[in-house]
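Narrative summary of target 7.
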Amino acid sequence: MALLVYVDDILVANPNISLILQIKSQLNDQFQIKDLGPLKYFLGLEVARQRKGIVVSQRKYALELLDEAGFMESKDVHSPTVLSHKLSRNEGDPLDDNTQYRRLIGKLLYLNITRPDISFATQQLSQFLDKPTHLHLQAAHRVLRYLKQAPGQGLFFPAGSDFQLKAFSDFDWGACIESRKSVTGFCIFLGEALVSWKSKKQPTISRSSSEAEYRALAATTCEVQWLIYLLDEFFIHPNIPAAIYCDSKSAIAIAENPVYHERTKYIEIDCHLVREKLHKGIIKLFHVTSENQLVDVLTKAHCPNSFFKYVSKLGLFNLYNLACGGLSEDTKHSSNTPSIN
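Modeled conformation, tokenized:
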């Protein structure tokens, strides 16, 4: 039995419905709970279930955010970032009141729960919470205009997916124009379902692209190991080794060949970590071309065409788009439990 508790809200999950009823009865005897039935809405997350799988989105939350910011009637865009513009602390006029900016970025970060396509943009914007400028606010408004084109887009978890963990690891060397720290990005699939992703600036400066790639690879390995432990708690045993794809042949060579002393002396702990998991058969490294590196969209800005190419492979699903087999307008407004057609 799995219980997810947040303050006074509880989700109960188990394949056996009789056990769920038993737990709810015991809870009601102690706390007088209110049973809301099958999961439809929880902390801003909208859940639609059907035999094909589950879609988790934040459409209502996204629409409320657009309405609050006054962008319901704005012109939408096809990517959350501008390829030719890198944000800096020293550009633009400081905002008189940064409360609005902080509130907006906080809401966008929460929207990342189901929208990996805005992870890189929000990671960039969150670096300027202490002293934002009007250019940072304009960049945040572009993310809102991107959300407007598909506020109902979310994650799709297919019912018939296998239990093979597949991870993509990438980096952008020296991406920060002020500190020259690199950006780590990874996304991890359980079968065809995207279950974990991250876009984050590395804590230290890397002296080479191989070093930056290897730090990203070590972060991905740690996340894969944690997911294996988590799945074991649910009595789910994924197939191992987990496949990790990266586009750096030098990083793979460092992991598989322990004699690269000169290249690895700055990242010795990361080298031992990845090499240990590799030798134990927990992970297996594969080379992937840059064109097929899905996580590239979490490490740098892209033009709309390349952005769509990568995002379309992340397992996102727009429940309210008829072209994707979604709901009609009448169904949207007449049903509280949307399903996949």
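DSSP finds eleven helices and twelve strands in the chain.
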